[in-house]
């Protein structure tokens, strides 16, 4: 029998006086929390909010990023919270064009968690760090009472070095830029949902979690002036494109038939009533580059193992600034909105 009394709305009202799951979904509610609560409290108002901060230091620039991982279940097809934590932090650094070097990890572990599971996560973190060529240099562990947490949460901080002349940030998106993506979208979110309690369905989809700094290095090696890079994680491609459009005050026009949505992802989203553009990814990137250099960048992406499925999905325009629209297969257009809250919790 369905328990309607204990259901919760995945898109709660935005004037709620308390924190709700939607505040962590990477959409409009997350942005409002940062803008109206954290930034005033910190007394800071950075000109741009990016996945990693680029900071000056003697002799060059550092990229610094921090993130927390609360994915449920902790193990899913193609990965775990461990490699997700490493790859996600590496990718946040890479989206500023930096070379990731060092990571810290901090664990919040619920009492009663199996040591075997914690060991699997730690081993996955070590293996992912070695594969990405980054060093794990410091960390911390806290244990909370049974019922005060939910398995294992992982917090990371990453440090990288930004090469001279690299200037990649959302406000650099400009009319005439081509919008590229490195491969299929929605894969990670569907992989996690396929094994979540109460949502089991057989998709054959595995998470795309992967470190993307090597792909970014190959893109930069083309010498095409890359304007924006973004890995579309929470909130998916829709959230990332809306954030970029608003930051740069450009319009973004997509061609819906060019969006690389695998059949299994499309089927799962249709079953659950989700938009693939709003489903999380963990091993894909968006690139905004001048149209004249788009083919060179696409060729470089396709030569890399994590960019084999790269394609052009749209362009920046001076029309409808701050808005993302998609041309449908029927010849019409639809507005691709920023997700408000969280479609389904604990994807990353």
3D architecture notes:
With 348 residues, the protein is α+β, with helices and mostly antiparallel strands. It folds into 3 domains: 1-45, no CATH class; 50-162, PurM-like, N-terminal domain (60s Ribosomal Protein L30, Chain: A); 170-335, Phosphoribosyl-aminoimidazole Synthetase, Chain A, domain 2 (Alpha-Beta Complex), CATH 3.90.650.10. It has helices spanning 28-42, 81-94, 115-132, 187-193, 213-220, 236-248, 263-272, 294-302, and strands at 53-57, 60-69, 75-76, 79-80, 98-110, 135-144, 152-162, 177-181, 228-230, 251-255, 286-290, 311-317, 324-327, 333-335. The chain has a 7-stranded mixed β-sheet with strand order 9-11-8-12-10-13-14. The chain has a 5-stranded mixed β-sheet with strand order 1-2-7-5-6, with helices on one face. A two-stranded antiparallel sheet has the order 3-4. A hairpin with a 5-residue loop joins strand 13 and strand 14 (333-335). Helix 2 (81-94) runs parallel beside helix 3 (115-132) and helix 5 runs antiparallel to helix 8. It starts with 27 loop residues before the first helix and ends in a 13-residue tail after the last strand. Pfam families: AIRS, AIRS_C. Residues 175-324 form the PurM-like C-terminal domain. Belongs to the HypE family.
What structural category do the secondary elements indicate? Answer: alpha+beta
Q: Into how many domains do the coordinates divide?
A: 3
CATH architecture of the largest domain: Alpha-Beta Complex
Principal-axes shape call: globular
Helix content: 25-40%
Query: Strands of the biggest beta sheet: in what spatial order?
Result: 9-11-8-12-10-13-14
Cα gyration radius (Å): 20 Å
Query: What string gives the helices and strands in order?
Result: HEEEEHEHEEEHHEHEHEHEEE
How many beta-strand segments?
14
Low-confidence stretches: 1-13
Strand content: 15-25%
Fold-level CATH name of the largest domain: Phosphoribosyl-aminoimidazole Synthetase, Chain A, domain 2
Number of helices: 8
- Average pLDDT value? 89
| Gap between N and C termini | 30 Å
| Level-1 CATH class name of the largest domain | Alpha Beta
InterPro entries: HypE, PurM-like_C_dom, PurM-like_C_sf, PurM-like_N, PurM-like_N_sf
Domain PurM-like C-terminal: 175-324
Domain PurM-like N-terminal: 51-162
Protein name: Hydrogenase expression/formation protein HypE
């Amino acid at each position: 029998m369905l328990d309607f009394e204990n259901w919760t709305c995945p898109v709660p009202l935005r004037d709620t006086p308390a924190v709700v799951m939607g505040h962590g979904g990477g959409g409009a509610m997350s942005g409002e929390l940062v803008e109206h609560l954290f930034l005033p409290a910190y007394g800071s108002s950075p000109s741009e909010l990016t996945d990693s901060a680029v900071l000056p230091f003697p002799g060059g620039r550092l990229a610094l990023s921090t993130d927390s991982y609360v994915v449920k279940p902790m193990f899913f097809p193609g990965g775990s919270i461990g490699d997700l934590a490493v790859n996600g932090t590496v990718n946040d650094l890479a989206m500023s064009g930096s070379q990731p070097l060092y990571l810290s990890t901090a664990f919040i572990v619920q009492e009663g968690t199996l040591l075997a599971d914690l060991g699997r996560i730690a081993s996955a973190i070590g293996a992912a760090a070695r594969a990405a060529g980054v060093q794990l240099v410091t960390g911390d562990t806290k244990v909370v009472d049974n019922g005060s947490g939910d398995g294992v949460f992982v917090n990371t901080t990453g440090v990288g070095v930004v090469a001279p002349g690299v200037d990649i940030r959302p406000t650099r998106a400009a009319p005439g830029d081509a919008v590229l993506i490195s491969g299929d979208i929605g894969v990670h979110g569907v992989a996690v949902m396929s094994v979540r309690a109460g949502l089991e369905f057989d998709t054959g989809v595995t998470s795309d979690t992967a470190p993307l700094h090597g792909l970014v290095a190959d893109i930069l090696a083309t010498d095409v002036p890359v304007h924006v890079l973004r890995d579309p994680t929470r909130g998916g491609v829709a959230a990332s494109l809306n954030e970029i459009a608003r930051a740069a005050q450009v319009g973004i026009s997509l061609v819906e038939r060019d969006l690389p949505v695998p059949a299994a992802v499309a089927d799962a989203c249709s079953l659950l009533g989700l938009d693939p553009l709003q489903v999380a990814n963990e091993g894909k990137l968006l690139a905004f580059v001048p149209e004249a250099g788009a083919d060179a960048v696409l060729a470089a992406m396709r030569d890399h193992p994590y960019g084999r499925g790269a394609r052009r999905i749209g362009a920046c325009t001076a029309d409808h600034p701050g808005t993302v629209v998609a041309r449908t297969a029927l010849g019409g257009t639809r507005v691709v909105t920023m997700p408000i809250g969280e479609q389904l919790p604990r994807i990353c």
